[in-house]
Write a structure and sequence with these properties.
Pfam family, one: NTP_transferase
Strand content: 25-35%
CATH topology of the largest domain: Spore Coat Polysaccharide Biosynthesis Protein SpsA, Chain A
GO molecular function, one term: UDP-N-acetylglucosamine diphosphorylase activity
Family: In the N-terminal section; belongs to the N-acetylglucosamine-1-phosphate uridyltransferase family. In the C-terminal section; belongs to the transferase hexapeptide repeat family.
Keywords: Transferase
Bound molecules: 2-acetamido-2-deoxy-1-O-phosphono-alpha-D-glucopyranose
Shape: globular
Distance between the termini: 57 Å
Helix content: 10-25%
Organism: Methanosarcina acetivorans
Largest sheet: 9 strands, parallel
Structural class: alpha/beta
CATH architecture of the largest domain: Alpha-Beta Complex
Length: about 400
């Protein structure tokens, strides 16, 4: 069976991390979310992948190339304008032939394990099947109403407790779906939504089934949700390899992976689950606590403590830093004594809407240069290519290219 993966969107609510990469390329346990998705498909024997790309597509294509390094064949299709999920799927029409009796569709930015996909592959039936999960808070998702297994209505992002059965956006369709996609009207918010296509199919008397799963399905709606996804994946990972070099006096507890050519210097204390990439230079006397992921080519100097955080590639973190519940994008330089304040239950304004975040420090996009003794207040985000001189306290979000003297 072929799979179409939707990977064309930016993921606006994951800014500033998505200013330079799309949401599917955000790292979880040092691998892009999309790589976890592809690996789950591959484990189910799905090797023919059609990747719908758009925003920051070069970054995706340079990473995955033809897919062979990941055990699959990838064909890329560009969705030039992001006109909704039905429009995205329609872009792949010419690559699905009548011999493909059915095909799978899923989002490239939702973490799934191989069992999640297997739950749909083992149970689908009818003209279309969609995989569902039960959730208390269904805000921001589509939900379904059903009789037995048959879906009677799909309601997209409506307020209220209409149903707690959430559409995961993972579907199996027969090629006939393209006929209904063509008839799908544009929605109120200007998109061709696959959920409207499914509702049309139901209205036409076609059989749309809901297949429940209790296997892993995680969506990073906001940038800070990446911390939870990272922690979940780290906690469930097995066979973590230690390939780097540990100096004498390094203490390691729990599951810790250390990549090739990484050097952990004396007196460093690491409590897993922790993943450290390749070519890192850490210590002496650094403390790394659960559930932390550190990318490739990262240096961290003495007496810095990091906990429940993601540090992406090519960062330089000086001594005496305090980094907890933070996401630091690629190629950031943090001077000595950097402190990220952290707080619980923050209210964060994104595009004039208040979103609540659990415990959070700060989130940095890429390429920022921060001097010594800088304090960033809890929940404050630094975009891309900002410069903050030593001794400053940052109280408000910094947009791209800011300079704080
Ligand atoms: C129009 C459409 O396709 N809506 C889907 C889709 O929403 P997005 O906002 O496009 O990510 O994926 C959700 C799962 O992540 C699902 O719940 C919802 O029904």
């Amino acid at each position: 069976m072929k799979a179409i993966i939707l990977a064309a969107g930016e993921g606006l609510r994951c800014r500033p991390l998505t200013l330079t990469r799309s949401k599917v390329m955000l790292p979880v346990a040092n691998r892009p979310i999309l790589e976890h998705v592809i690996s789950s498909l591959e484990k189910n024997g799905i090797k023919e992948i059609i990747l719908i790309v758009g925003y920051e597509k070069e970054r995706i294509m340079n990473y995955f190339e033809d897919g062979l390094n990941f055990g699959v064949n990838i064909t890329y299709v560009e969705q030039k304008a992001q006109l909704g999920t039905a429009h995205a799927i329609e872009q792949a029409k010419k690559l699905i032939s009548p011999e493909d009796s059915e095909f799978l569709v899923l989002n490239g930015d939702n973490l799934v394990e191989s069992k999640t996909i297997a739950d749909l592959l083992n149970n689908y039936k009818g003209d279309a099947s969609l995989l569902t999960v039960r959730m208390e808070d269904t805000a921001g998702y589509g939900v379904v109403l059903k009789e037995n297994k048959r879906v009677t209505r799909i309601l997209e992002k409506r307020p209220g407790d209409l149903s707690h059965i959430v559409n995961t956006g993972i579907y199996i369709f027969t090629p006939q779906v393209f006929e209904t996609i063509e008839k799908t009207p544009i929605s109120e918010n200007g998109e061709y939504a696959i959920t409207d296509t499914l509702q049309l199919m139901i209205d036409e008397g076609k059989i749309v089934t809901s297949i429940p799963t209790e296997s892993k399905w995680l969506d990073a709606v906001h940038a800070w949700d990446l911390l939870k996804a990272n922690s979940t994946v780290l906690n469930s990972s097995r066979n973590l390899k230690q390939e780097g070099e540990l100096e004498e006096g390094v203490i390691i507890r729990g599951k810790v992976a250390i990549g090739k050519n990484s050097r952990i210097r004396a007196g460093t204390y690491i409590v897993g689950p922790v993943v450290i990439g390749e070519n890192c230079d850490i210590g002496p006397n650094v403390v790394i606590l659960p559930s932390t992921t550190i990318g490739d080519n990262v240096s961290i100097r003495s007496f810095t403590e990091i906990q429940n955080s993601i540090i992406m590639n090519d960062c330089r973190i000086s001594s005496h830093g305090q980094i907890s519940n933070c996401i630091i994008g690629s190629n950031n330089t943090l001077g000595p004594g950097f402190t990220a304040e952290e707080k619980e239950n923050l209210e964060i304004n994104i595009n004039c809407k208040i979103h609540s975040a659990p415990k959070l420090g700060t989130i940095f996009g890429d390429d920022n240069r921060i001097g010594g003794r800088v304090l960033v207040k809890a929940g404050v985000m630094i975009a891309v290519n900002c410069q903050v001189e030593s001794g400053n306290t940052i109280y408000r979000d910094l947009p791209r290219d800011s300079v704080v003297l």
